[in-house]
């Protein structure tokens, strides 16, 4: 290549970078066919894949109660919610595909432990109250984290988040309504709710990720407009939103340091056990092994469906005169 050609290429690259930076600076969307830095693409694939995996693995803890829901109404509601999570996973895998990721490869990375999913789904659901508390706290935390992602700089991700958030909001309300019902029931039911809140509160706070001073990805992701707030900002927002809801419900949040700070106009609260968090995301939480084993089995069980769908698509292409 001549020197002039190299120079022209460099100029083109610099021009692309400028154009990308200008779109980000103006708060406009990056779309799949736009040029983007490799790091931006890789970060998005990492986050979106992790998010998709979380939705799919997240079907398991609640799915555990589908056969034992206390009434037909509760069973129908829970079934619809779990199906919604599957739908969220599929929108998100599609968003990752627009970045050139291969869905089968993402699944392979999940089941052999090369990609993460949310820490929250590595805890067991011991009673039916856990279903309500997951709706209230876990979907509540998901909403806090995901509403700002509707403005994420990558178009397909932001647009997927709009629909996901609408459904998560409905999930949060169904969880809260269920807990309200239980709290106006017997002492045994109230104890069951309190016990579930005691077990899920700290893991829910961990969903937002490590503290800002130990979050390697936040600064760059915020510069790129992938994330709009830091982990600690969103955790604070969640606590402030949840405290009055806990009061209305009549449950105690298990944090002796939790109190309103007049000067800050926000709640002070204790730190989650970060050693526990890092151990859970390293694969050593109470249910990591079970969650991945179940996902791997489901993937194996679905092999014949994928093969049949691929064979059908090939036959269809042939009958349309396209190469198989
Ligand atoms: N769990 O630099 P950081 C749902 C990892 S689905 C596991 O702060 P980042 C729902 C992080 O990946 C909920 N890993 O990272 C579904 C990174 O490791 P790698 C899922 C975590 O990406 C069904 C390392 O720690 N929601 O709501 O800037 C039913 C350092 O962290 C976690 C999403 O995925 C965690 N909690 O920020 C009901 C939302 N936190 O990848 C509900 C989209 C951190 O470098 N994702 N790590 O090896 C995000 O907003 C961000 O990715 C996070 C982390 C805030 C989670």
From TrEMBL:
Superkingdom of the source species: Bacteria
Listed GO MF terms: phenylacetyl-CoA 1,2-epoxidase activity
GO terms classed as biological process: phenylacetate catabolic process
GO cellular component labels: cytosol
InterPro entries noted in UniProt: Aromatic_CoA_ox/epox (IPR052703), Ferritin-like (IPR012347), Ferritin-like_SF (IPR009078), PaaA (IPR011881), PaaA_PaaC (IPR007814)
Protein known as: Putative phenylacetic acid degradation protein PaaA/phenylacetate-CoA oxygenase, PaaG subunit
UniProt organism field: Mycolicibacterium confluentis
Taxonomy of the source species: Bacteria, Bacillati, Actinomycetota, Actinomycetes, Mycobacteriales
């Amino acid at each position: 290549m001549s020197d002039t050609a190299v120079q022209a290429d460099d100029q083109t690259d610099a021009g692309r970078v400028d154009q990308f930076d200008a779109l980000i600076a103006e708060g406009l969307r990056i779309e799949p066919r736009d040029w983007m830095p490799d790091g931006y693409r890789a970060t998005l694939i990492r986050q979106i894949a992790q998010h998709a995996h979380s939705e799919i693995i997240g079907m398991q803890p609640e799915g555990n109660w589908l056969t034992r829901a206390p009434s037909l109404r509760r069973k129908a509601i829970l079934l619809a919610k779990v199906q919604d999570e599957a739908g969220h996973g599929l929108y998100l895998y599609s968003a990752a595909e627009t970045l050139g990721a291969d869905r089968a490869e993402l699944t392979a990375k999940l089941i052999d432990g090369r990609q993460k999913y949310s820490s929250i789904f590595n805890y067991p659901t011991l009673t039916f109250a856990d279903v309500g508390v997951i709706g209230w706290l876990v979907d509540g935390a998901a909403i806090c984290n995901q509403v700002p992602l509707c403005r994420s700089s990558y178009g397909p991700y932001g647009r997927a988040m709009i629909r996901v958030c609408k459904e998560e909001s409905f999930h949060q309300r169904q969880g809260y309504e269920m807990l309200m019902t239980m709290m106006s029931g017997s002492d045994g039911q109230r104890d069951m709710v309190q016990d579930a809140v005691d077990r899920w509160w700290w893991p829910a706070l961990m969903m937002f990720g490590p503290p800002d001073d130990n979050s390697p990805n936040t600064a760059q992701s915020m510069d790129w407009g992938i994330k709009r707030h830091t982990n600690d900002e969103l955790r604070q927002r969640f606590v402030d939103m949840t405290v009055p809801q806990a009061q209305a419900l009549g449950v105690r949040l298990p944090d002796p340091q939790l109190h309103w700070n007049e000067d800050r106009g926000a709640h002070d609260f204790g730190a989650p056990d970060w050693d526990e968090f890092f151990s859970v995301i390293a694969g050593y939480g109470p249910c990591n092994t079970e969650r991945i084993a179940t996902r791997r089995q489901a993937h194996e069980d679905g092999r014949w469906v994928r093969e049949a769908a691929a064979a059908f698509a090939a036959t269809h292409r042939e009958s349309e005169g396209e190469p198989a």
